[in-house]
Design a protein that fits this description.
The chain has four helices and nine strands; from the N terminus they run E-E-H-H-E-E-H-E-E-E-E-H-E. By secondary structure, the chain is an alpha+beta fold. The chain has a single domain, classed as Protein Transport Mog1p, Chain A. The protein has a seven-stranded antiparallel β-sheet, sandwiched between helices. It has a two-stranded antiparallel sheet with strand order 1-9.
Length: 203
């Protein structure tokens, strides 16, 4: 098979796939929200908050070098339930992108206190790809442009590109600040990550 040149990932139909580029994201998100409100009129009262939330997700994704960003924003009375999944392509340290080398770079973080951050290192089995390293837990995510940080449910799945000398890793990151739904969100991020696949010119 020809070496992969890209990737694909699938998010639920209710999610938004977001243009993260600064030159186009604001207008693209406005059009995206308008289309969704037209289909789901119940979202109309949340239109402004929805737009702000998606622009914030896009800004953070771009600052972190994401090549892809999908987001969920659901309104409940005056509150918004938000989550995002991004894919970032990175060069592996020392060009060693095999799963064992990546796993050796990951560190767990024991939970301290009921509300403290924690992280565990596990192995995930992705259909068509195999066993890859993953971290899951609650972490403090730094916001772009000096806006501080936010404690979030976070899952990162590290998928080496095929090929012994490729040296690239696709990092699939699921994140949400809705801590009371930690286990449900981790299950959701696991399901979305399971749709990831590499794309090659002959596929």
């Amino acid at each position: 098979m020809t070496e992969p040149t890209g990737f694909a990932i699938t998010v639920p139909d209710s999610w938004f796939e977001i243009d993260v580029h600064p030159d186009t994201r604001n207008s693209a998100i406005s059009a995206l929200v308008s289309d969704r409100v037209r289909v789901v009129p119940e979202l109309a009262p949340h239109r402004a908050a929805l737009t702000r939330a998606l622009r914030g997700v896009a800004r953070t994704a771009y600052a972190n070098g994401a090549a892809y960003c999908g987001a969920m924003v659901q309104g409940f009375d005056e509150a918004l339930l938000t989550a995002s999944v991004t894919v970032t392509i990175l060069r592996a340290p020392n060009e060693e992108s095999d799963a064992a080398s990546v796993t050796a770079q990951l560190r767990s973080l024991p939970r301290i206190g009921a509300d403290g951050p924690w992280r565990e290192v596990v192995q995930a089995d992705l259909p068509g790809i195999g066993s890859v390293p993953r971290t899951r837990g609650v972490t403090d995510v730094v916001l772009p442009e000096g806006e501080g940080w936010i404690r979030s449910v976070t899952m990162q799945t590290f998928v080496p590109f095929p090929g012994e000398r490729d040296g690239r890793i696709a990092v699939i990151t699921g994140s949400s600040p809705i801590l009371p739904l930690t286990e449900d969100l981790l299950d959701l991020f696991d399901a979305i990550s399971g749709t990831f696949r590499f794309i090659s010119p002959d596929s």
